[in-house]
Specification:
The complex is a heterodimer of chains A (about 650) and B (about 250).
Chain A: H1 17-24, H2 30-33, E1 37-41, H3 45-57, E2 60-64, E3 82-83, H4 95-105, H5 112-131, E4 157-158, H6 164-181, E5 185-188, E6 191-199, E7 202-210, E8 216-220, E9 223-226, H7 247-254, E10 259-260, E11 265-271, E12 294-298, H8 301-308, E13 322-323, H9 325-329, H10 339-354, E14 363-366, H11 368-374, H12 376-394, E15 403-412, E16 415-416, E17 429-431, H13 449-470, H14 483-500, H15 508-522, H16 529-549, H17 561-585, H18 609-612, E18 614-619, E19 628-633
Parallel strand pairs in A: 1-2, 1-9, 2-5, 9-17
Antiparallel strand pairs in A: 3-4, 6-7, 7-8, 10-16, 10-18, 11-15, 12-13, 12-14, 14-15, 18-19
Helix pairs in contact in A: 3-6, 3-13, 4-5, 5-13, 11-12, 15-16, 15-17, 16-17
Chain B: E1 3-9, E2 18-24, H1 33-46, E3 68-70, E4 73-74, E5 96-101, E6 109-111, E7 114-115, H2 118-127, H3 147-157, H4 164-168, H5 175-186, H6 195-208, H7 219-223, H8 231-249
Parallel strand pairs in B: 1-5
Antiparallel strand pairs in B: 1-2, 3-4, 3-5, 6-7
Helix pairs in contact in B: 2-6, 3-5, 5-6, 5-8, 6-8
Chain lengths: ~650, ~250
C-alpha cells in the first residue's frame, strides 16, 4: 500500500528543499493566466490569502463563502497571535528552532519537510501583514512587540491585542477586495459547497447551494482549492463558529480525497466552562493569557468543595493551600506547556475532585500577581477585550476574581491528506489551512494556525498551484453540461429531498448535541479502546434517529437554517465514525491523542514509534464498506525523535 | 424566566412584513440572547412551524454577523457588545421583548431578521486596503510606527462590520464604518501614498450604495459594539477635504 501515497518531498538538504523545489516548479505565462479558472472555497486566512495572491498573478478566481461577507470567516475569532521566527528579541530564535518546536509540539507526527517550510516562510508573513496595514502591537520606539505562547521558550508571537485573527483576516480580506475591484476575483457569498465534480480522476468544479434562493448551481474550474477549515463542530460544543462545518471536507472525502489523521483533534485548555443546558458554543480565552495568568486549584478537597458551593472565596485560599499544578509538574515550561498537556492536567485535577466551580469542572486562571507586578492598566492593554468578553458571559469581574476555565474542543489537526504541493489524492484538488493535515501532527502549538493559513495561502499555494495548471494549459474550461456535473447536481438535490422528507418533529440541534456529548466522552481528552469501540453502535443509533425523527419546517427554496444544520449533521455523523475508527486503530498516545492504555507512569503520553510513526490516510469505499487505511511513513532525517518533555 | 417575544417576520425581500408574538418559558438567566432564539426555534420545529431566520456565527462578538434591533436599540440595551454577547439576565422576567432586523435603506431585508449588508463589502472593495502585492513587502521593521499611532489605528480597525451604526442612524449613514477603515489605514505609514484615493473612492461608493449623509448626531458612536468614536469621522472628513483641495490645486 505504501506506493499509493507519494508525498513528493523534494530532494536536497532540509533548509534547501523549498528553494530548490520552487526552482523546479513550472510557471504559467501572464498571457495565459486569465484563461485559467480557479475555485477557492472558504474565505478565512487561508482562502482569502490564496484567492488574493492568485488574483494578483492574473488568474480568474471564483471564491465561495457561507457568510454574508468573506470577513465573517472563523479565522476572525483567533485571539492571541501569530508566530514567526524573526528573533526580534535576540533570544536565539530561528527557523530551525520554530521548526523543532512545531515538530516536537506535534509529538513527531507531522511531515518534517512541510514543517520546515512553514517555519521558513513565517517571517515573510509578518512583513506582508505589516505592509497590508495590520496594526500589530508595538513598543514605544515603534518596533513590533512579541509575547510567548505554549510549547516554546522564546518570545515569537506577534499580536494585535486579543484580536489578532480579526486584524489578519481584515488584511487578507482587504487584499481579496482589491482583486475583486480589479476584476480578477469574484466572490459568491451565502453559498455552500455541496459537492465536488470529478471527471477522469481530476477535480473539475463544484456544485453549490445558494443559501438565499436554494438554487443548486454548477461552477467549472481548472483547479479547486479547499480552504474550509476544520471539523471541530462534530463535537457540537466547541470554540468554532456556528457555521463552521465539515461538509465540503466530507464530500471531497467521498469523492476520493483521502482523509488523514481524523482522530487528531485539539482540546484547548483555557475556555469558559460549560454553564447551561441550552448552551450553543464555548468561548475561548486566549492562550496568551497564560503569559501572565497562573493556573491553580486548591491542594485540599475540602477547600475545593467550599469553593464549589460558594462558601469560600478564591482570595481566601492561602498561598500555601494552592496547587499551581502546571508550575509544579512542568517547571521548565510552567503555565506555558502545550495545549494537550495543559488540558489533560486540568481534567486530571478536576477528576480528582479539585474543580472550583459548581459543576466541579473548572480551574482558576489567576492574574493577581500580574496585577501586582505590572499594574491593571498594562494587563488591560494586553487583554482588555478578553476580560470584557469573560465578564459578559459569566457575569463575574475577572479584575476582582480569578477566571474559571476548562478545556474545550477547539481545532482539528487532521484533514485532507496533501502532498508537499498541497494537492490531495484527487488531481487538481488542493487543501490549505486547517482543512489539510500536514503541519501540526498530533497537537498544534498556539499561534501557529494563523501562521499556517497565511503561509499556505500567500506563499506556498501560489507557487505549487501554477505548476499543476502549467501541465494542462491546453485544457479548456470544463463543460458544465458534462454528465458528471448533471450527476453531481442530481445527487445534491436528492440529498436535500431526503432530509426534507423526514418530517419528524425533533430539532437537529437535539441530535447534534447528543453526538457531541458522545464524542466528547469517548473521543475527547482521554480515549480508551473500550470506550471507542462502544461508540460505533451509539453513532448508528443517532444516525437512525436522524433519518426518522428530524423535523425541518419550511421550504428548501429560501433561507432555511434547519436544512443547513441537517445537511451538516448528516456529514458530521459520517465523519464521527471515521474519527473514532482512526482513534481506535492508533494504539499509542501522542499529542492530543491520549489512549489510557499507552501512558508513562507519570501519566504522560507514550508513543509507539515502531508501530505508528506514520500518517493514517483513510480512503472512502462507499456507504456500506469500511474505509481503507493507507499509511505514509514519517521519516525524520534531520532531527532525533525523542520523548516529548516539558519538565 | 419567561418572555413574550414580538419578532419581525418577513418571508422574502418583496414580501410584506409583520410582527409575530411568541411566548417562551423556562429560560435560564445564563442563556445568551441568541441561545434564547435557538430555544424558540427548537420549540417551533416541534410544532412543525417555520423557524425564525437570523444571522449569527462566532457568538463571541467578533465576526459581526449577528445584529438585531432589540427593544428599539441596535444589539440591545447594553453598550459595547454585540447581540450574541447579550444575556437574558439583562431582561426582566415576564417582560415583552421586541426584535427587529437592522433596518436601513441600504440594508434590504432578505428574510425575517436577516438583512443584506453587501453594500459594506462594495465600499471596502472601492479602496479599503493597501495596494501591495504578495511578496513585495520590505522587512517589517523598515517601517516604524509609534505606539500611540498603532493603538489608535487598532481602535479604528476593531470595526466588525455589523452595521449597528447604519441601523441606528436616522440618516442611515455609513460614515462611522467608512471612517473606521480610512482612519485605521491613514494612521499608518504604509497606507499613506494612496490615502487620498482611498478616502475619495470609499466616500463616493458609500453615496452610490444609498447610505445617507452624516449630520453629526453621534448615535453611531453610542451604539457601536466596539466603541469606535466619531473622532474617526473627523479624520475621514479631513482626509476627504485635503484630497479635494489637492485636486483643485492640480
Amino acid at each position: 500500500m505504501a506506493g499509493i501515497l507519494n508525498a513528493k518531498i523534494p530532494e536536497g538538504p532540509l533548509d534547501q528543499k523549498w528553494t530548490l523545489h520552487k526552482e523546479s516548479l513550472k510557471t504559467v505565462s501572464p498571457a495565459n493566466r486569465s484563461r485559467m479558472h480557479i475555485i477557492v472555497v472558504g474565505t478565512g486566512l487561508a482562502g482569502a490569502s490564496a484567492a488574493a495572491a492568485l488574483g494578483e498573478q492574473g488568474y480568474r478566481v471564483n471564491v465561495f463563502c457561507m457568510g454574508d461577507s468573506p470577513r465573517r470567516a472563523h479565522s476572525v475569532s483567533a485571539q492571541g497571535g501569530i508566530n514567526a521566527a524573526k528573533n526580534y528579541r535576540n533570544d536565539n530564535d530561528s527557523a530551525q528552532r520554530l521548526f523543532l518546536d512545531t515538530l516536537k509540539g506535534g509529538d513527531f507526527r507531522s511531515r518534517e519537510a512541510n514543517v520546515f517550510r512553514l517555519a521558513e516562510v513565517s517571517n515573510a508573513i509578518i512583513d506582508h501583514c505589516v505592509a497590508l496595514g495590520v496594526p500589530f502591537a508595538r513598543d514605544y520606539a515603534g518596533y513590533l512587540d512579541n509575547r510567548s505562547f505554549g510549547g516554546s521558550q522564546v518570545s515569537r508571537t506577534f499580536y494585535a491585542r486579543g484580536q489578532t485573527g480579526q486584524q489578519l483576516l481584515l488584511a487578507a480580506y482587504g487584499a481579496l477586495n482589491r482583486q475583486v475591484a480589479l476584476g480578477n476575483v469574484t466572490v459568491h457569498c451565502r453559498h455552500q459547497m455541496m459537492d465536488l465534480v470529478v471527471i477522469d480522476g481530476q477535480a473539475k468544479g463544484i456544485i453549490t447551494r445558494d443559501m438565499v434562493t436554494g438554487r443548486i448551481e454548477k461552477y467549472p474550474a481548472h483547479a479547486v482549492v479547499l480552504a474550509t477549515g476544520g471539523y471541530a463542530n462534530v463535537y457540537f460544543l466547541s470554540t468554532n463558529g456556528m457555521n463552521s462545518n465539515a461538509s465540503a471536507l466530507v464530500q471531497c472525502w467521498k469523492k476520493g480525497a483521502y482523509f488523514a489523521n481524523p482522530g487528531f483533534v485539539q482540546i484547548h485548555p483555557t475556555c469558559i466552562p460549560v454553564h447551561g443546558t441550552h448552551q450553543s458554543k464555548l468561548t475561548l480565552m486566549s492562550e496568551s493569557l497564560r503569559n501572565d495568568g497562573r493556573i491553580w486549584v486548591p491542594k485540599d478537597k475540602t477547600i475545593a468543595i467550599k469553593l464549589q458551593n460558594g462558601t469560600l472565596k478564591p482570595s481566601e485560599v492561602a498561598e500555601d493551600e494552592r496547587d499551581y499544578y502546571l508550575e509544579r509538574r512542568y517547571p521548565a515550561y510552567g503555565n506555558l506547556v502545550p495545549r494537550d498537556v495543559a488540558s489533560r492536567a486540568a481534567k486530571e485535577r478536576c477528576d480528582a475532585g479539585l474543580g472550583v466551580n459548581k459543576t466541579g469542572k473548572a480551574v482558576f486562571l489567576d492574574f493577581e500577581r500580574a496585577f501586582e507586578t505590572q499594574g491593571k492598566e498594562s494587563i488591560d492593554r494586553k487583554y482588555g477585550n478578553l476580560f470584557q468578553m469573560y465578564e459578559k458571559i459569566t457575569d463575574e469581574n475577572p479584575y476582582r476574581k480569578p477566571m474559571k476555565i476548562f478545556p474545550a474542543m477547539h481545532y482539528t489537526m487532521g484533514g485532507l491528506w496533501v502532498d508537499y504541493n498541497l494537492m490531495t489524492t484527487i488531481r487538481g484538488l488542493f487543501a490549505i489551512g486547517e482543512a489539510n493535515f500536514s503541519d501540526h501532527g498530533a497537537n498544534r502549538l498556539g499561534a501557529s494556525a494563523l501562521m499556517q493559513g497565511l503561509a499556505d495561502g500567500f506563499f506556498i499555494l501560489p507557487y505549487t498551484l501554477p505548476d499543476f495548471l502549467a501541465s494542462g494549459l491546453k485544457e479548456p474550461l470544463p463543460d458544465p453540461t458534462h454528465p458528471e456535473f448533471a450527476k453531481a447536481t442530481e445527487n445534491v438535490k436528492q440529498r436535500i429531498r431526503n432530509v426534507m422528507e423526514i418530517r419528524g418533529r425533533r430539532p437537529v440541534d437535539d441530535l447534534h448535541r447528543k453526538l457531541g456529548k458522545l464524542m466528547w466522552e469517548h473521543a475527547g481528552i482521554v480515549r480508551s479502546a473500550e470506550g471507542l469501540a462502544q461508540t460505533f453502535a451509539a453513532l448508528e443509533d443517532i444516525r437512525g434517529r436522524f433519518f426518522r425523527e428530524t423535523g425541518i419546517p419550511g421550504s428548501e427554496n429560501t433561507i432555511n437554517q434547519e436544512l443547513e444544520k441537517a445537511l451538516h449533521l448528516e456529514d458530521y455523523l459520517l465523519l464521527a465514525g471515521l474519527i473514532v475508527k482512526d482513534a481506535l486503530h492508533r494504539e499509542e498516545s501522542c499529542g492530543g491523542h491520549f489512549r489510557i492504555e499507552s501512558q508513562t507512569k507519570d501519566g504522560e503520553t507514550l508513543r509507539n514509534d515502531k508501530m505508528f510513526q506514520y500518517v493514517a490516510a483513510w480512503e472512502y469505499k462507499g456507504s456500506d464498506a469500511e474505509p481503507v487505511l493507507h499509511k505514509e511513513s514519517l521519516v525524520f532525517n534531520y532531527i532525533d525523535v525523542t520523548e516529548r518533555k516539558y519538565k | 424566566m419567561q418572555f413574550t417575544l414580538k419578532i419581525w417576520r418577513q418571508a422574502g425581500p418583496r414580501a410584506k412584513g409583520y410582527f409575530e408574538r411568541f411566548t417562551l418559558d423556562h429560560v435560564d438567566s445564563d442563556t445568551s440572547f441568541l441561545e434564547m432564539l435557538d430555544m424558540l426555534n427548537n420549540q417551533l420545529v416541534k410544532e412543525s412551524r417555520e423557524t425564525i431566520a437570523f444571522d449569527h456565527d462566532c457568538r463571541e462578538g467578533i465576526c459581526g454577523a449577528c445584529g438585531l434591533y432589540i427593544n428599539g436599540r441596535a444589539h440591545g440595551p447594553d453598550e459595547g457588545i454585540t447581540t450574541c454577547q447579550l444575556y437574558m439576565r439583562r431582561f426582566k422576567d415576564g417582560s415583552e421583548i421586541t426584535v427587529e432586523p437592522f433596518r436601513s435603506g441600504a440594508f434590504p431585508v432578505i428574510k425575517d431578521l436577516v438583512v443584506n449588508r453587501n453594500a459594506f463589502d462594495k465600499i471596502l472593495q472601492a479602496g479599503g486596503f493597501v495596494s501591495v502585492n504578495t511578496g513585495s513587502a520590505p522587512e517589517a521593521h523598515t517601517m516604524l510606527v509609534s505606539r500611540e499611532k498603532a493603538e489608535e489605528s487598532m481602535d479604528a480597525s476593531s470595526c466588525i462590520g455589523c452595521g449597528a451604526c447604519v441601523a441606528s442612524c436616522k440618516n442611515g449613514s455609513a460614515m462611522l464604518f467608512v471612517a473606521s477603515r480610512v482612519s485605521a489605514l491613514s494612521l499608518l505609514p504604509q497606507g499613506n501614498p494612496e490615502a487620498c484615493r482611498r478616502a475619495r473612492a470609499m466616500v463616493l461608493k458609500m453615496d452610490e450604495q444609498g447610505f445617507g449623509s452624516c449630520t453629526n448626531i453621534g448615535t453611531c458612536q453610542m451604539e457601536c459594539p466596539k466603541k469606535i468614536t466619531v473622532a474617526h469621522i473627523a479624520r475621514l472628513n479631513r482626509e476627504f477635504l485635503y484630497c479635494k483641495r489637492s485636486d483643485l490645486q492640480e
